[in-house]
């Protein structure tokens, strides 16, 4: 009798193992599939998020998305896009798309909507969205790609194309214009020396000044056109700025303004002193002109990561945000008597040094940050 019982229990045990195995395998595959999906979702090279349409809350968000937002995942899940910095106009466009295109409708997905979050430090991103069905919930699958660097490169390419065009124009006409201008200036000087009429002398002097101003513009044209090989040297920016300090201070004194120079502990770098001198003078003079009487121009140097930074800050009224990206474009100027070529030359000099110019501006003033790499500069004839 006991033998039959043990045999029966044995059959039960075998049957239990068969049932457990048959039931466990599907669940194991489901768990494995979810793990694969979660890994792909979390480590995708673009930002991904899932938003429930009924209450606009984030259900899931991956690492790239949180990095762009500058928040932790737990600070985003359960929040709406507006609560984490999305612009109301941008989010309305995404919602309008979702409401007009049901899941699996075959409608074209929303692609490459350019947004900028209302959060300090956030860049520019391209948003794409697709409506999806998760269980009984209608959701938005949204991808985000940070395009700040791409936009910056595009702006730089457009600016360089314009510089190239100006260079070609300058090389073609500058010399032909300067020759007759020199002749005219010489005759005006001669007439000024011979005449005794003070009114006529004043007029002739004014004409010579205008010719000199035109000649200065042509010189700037030629500077953009020339592809000279800079004379690079191992040099310290502080030494260069100390040599320039009396000249900049004299300019500020005549305008009843001040200069503050704060040199930091920086290593020597490879620069062309002549070119950097021109760049510093251009930016400093722009800064002085931007300020009212009593304003102070601050010049600083410091080391940051793998760069040496030259910072020049004025106390002017700032540059409007929509004009910042146009800085360095030939002929673009905010000054009534400016040519718009001075900053173009500065950007060209920075490029030849593998340096980067960043501009920060507010109603309290504008700051130019020129970052020079510490590694050796590859000298080329380009």
Automatic annotation (TrEMBL):
Keywords: ATP-binding, Kinase, Nucleotide-binding, Phosphoprotein, Transferase, Two-component regulatory system
The Histidine kinase domain, residue ranges: 172-376
Keyword Transferase tagged: yes
SUPFAM superfamilies to which the protein is assigned, alphabetical: ATPase domain of HSP90 chaperone/DNA topoisomerase II/histidine kinase (SSF55874), Homodimeric domain of signal transducing histidine kinase (SSF47384)
SMART domains linked to this entry: HATPase_c, HisKA
Entry EC number(s): 2.7.-.-
One MF annotation (Gene Ontology) recorded for this entry: ATP binding
UniProt entry tagged with the keyword Nucleotide-binding: yes
Protein name according to UniProt: Adaptive-response sensory-kinase SasA
Provenance organism: bioreactor metagenome
Name of the gene: sasA_96
């Amino acid at each position: 009798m006991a033998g039959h019982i043990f045999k029966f229990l044995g059959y039960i045990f075998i049957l239990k193992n068969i049932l457990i195995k048959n039931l466990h395998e599907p669940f194991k595959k489901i768990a494995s599939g979810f793990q694969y999906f979660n890994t792909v979702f979390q480590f995708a090279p673009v930002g991904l998020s899932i938003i429930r349409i009924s209450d606009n809350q984030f259900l899931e968000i991956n690492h790239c998305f949180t990095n762009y937002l500058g928040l932790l995942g737990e600070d985003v899940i359960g929040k709406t896009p507006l609560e984490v910095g999305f612009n109301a106009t941008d989010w309305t466009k995404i919602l309008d798309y979702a409401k007009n295109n049901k899941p699996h409708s075959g409608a074209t997905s929303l692609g490459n909507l350019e947004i900028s979050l209302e959060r300090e430090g956030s860049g520019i991103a391209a948003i794409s969205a697709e409506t999806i069905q998760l269980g009984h919930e209608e959701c938005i699958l949204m991808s985000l790609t940070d395009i700040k660097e791409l936009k910056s490169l595009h702006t730089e390419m457009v600016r360089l194309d314009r510089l190239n065009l100006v260079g070609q124009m300058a090389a073609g006409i500058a010399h032909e214009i300067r020759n007759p201008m020199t002749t005219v200036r010489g005759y005006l000087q001669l007439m000024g020396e011979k005449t005794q009429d003070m009114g006529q002398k004043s007029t002739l002097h004014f004409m010579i000044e205008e010719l000199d101003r035109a000649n200065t513009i042509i010189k700037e044209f030629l500077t953009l056109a020339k592809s000279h090989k800079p004379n690079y040297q191992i040099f310290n920016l502080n030494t260069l700025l100390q040599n320039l300090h009396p000249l900049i201070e004299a300019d500020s004194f005549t305008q009843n303004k001040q200069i503050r120079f704060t040199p930091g502990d920086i290593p020597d770098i490879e620069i062309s002193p002549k070119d950097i001198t021109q760049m510093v003078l251009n930016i400093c003079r722009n800064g002085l002109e931007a300020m009212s009487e009593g304003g102070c121009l601050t010049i600083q140097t410091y080391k940051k990561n793998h760069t040496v930074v030259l910072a020049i800050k004025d106390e002017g009224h700032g540059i409007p945000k929509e004009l910042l990206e146009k800085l360095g474009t030939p002929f673009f100027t905010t000054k009534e008597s400016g040519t718009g070529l001075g900053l173009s030359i500065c950007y060209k000099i920075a490029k030849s040094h593998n340096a980067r110019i960043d501009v920060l501006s507010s109603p309290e003033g504008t700051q130019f940050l020129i970052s020079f790499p510490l590694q050796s500069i590859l000298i080329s004839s380009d």
